[in-house]
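Letters spell out the chain; backbone shape is given numerically. Both lines appear below:
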Amino acid sequence: MIADALAARQAEIGRAIARRVVDEIPEYARAPEDVLEDLLAGATATVGLLARAFEGNLNRADLAVIRDLAARRVHQGVSLEAFLHAYRVALFAYWDACAEEATRADLSRDESLDLAKRALDAMDLMTSQAAEGYLREEARLRVESGRQARDAIERMLSGRPPGDIRLPAAPFVTIVGQATDEAARDALRERLPRALIARREDEIVIVATAADATRAALEQRGHFGVSLPASDYTGIRQAYREASLARGYATGARPIVALAELSAFECLLVGADATTRAVIAAKPSLDDEDAATVEAFAAADLNVSRAAAALHVHPNTVRYRLERIATETGHDPRTFSGLVELELRNLIFSYLEVTNAL
């Protein structure tokens, strides 16, 4: 009896639900007319399903309309929070209608409790289906968007147009960092909503409008290299190379390195031709310990005590290493010319490690 009465008021209750959603949720109040029309249609369909639930005739297949509605909200740009809030509003509005019919029918206490149980069970079922439909479509779009971004980036890295995907507004930069987990990539997508973001083997590649690619957008997300700005897709191949090289200079103290920030010597290395690289590669390199000693000695302005403190060793250890380096290389790091030569070697071989990995 109650189910029949509610079914007869389907259009009326649907309109009441739509009004309450718009009144209570700012995101819907600002929504365009087509979304509001879909809101009314969805509210009316929900009322019909709830009436059927009271009769025990509702199954998962019948709730496909709810999952489809949820998928449309994803495409309409309605947030999950606002969407589920709308369902709570709708179900409370429907409960008010149930209470009206229960009062009108003068139900007994047991009948009222049974009505409440049926209503709550139906509301719980439909809300869970709405959330499931929304999250499933959102996940599908994330995968599809990631695939499209990756395909577009791969095309541009091979010198081809990006395809149908829309590029960020020019000038844009290319950013290369270490591969991140999905949560970190979601955080980057939130901070750079207009960017192309894709995982490429063991790295993440981002093509973003230069003005958007701020340090704040990348901070605490890992080590990144940032290219010079490009004006169209034809510059992406070179920009990727620039960003990869800049990333090679990133450290814990300097996690984000833009190509424009590199020293004059580092920039010369970036543009070195194959012959120059071959000559550089033929020079003997320092081992890790000696390279660290030279770097610390240079950073300490040739002060042995400060270099030792930075390396966490005794000053005599630093003196011994410097003497050994001078003997083995023919360049004394305790002199200006020798230190410059050895420090340049450190930079050279760091550069070669980066370029060989590209």
Remarks:
- The chain has a mean pLDDT of 84.
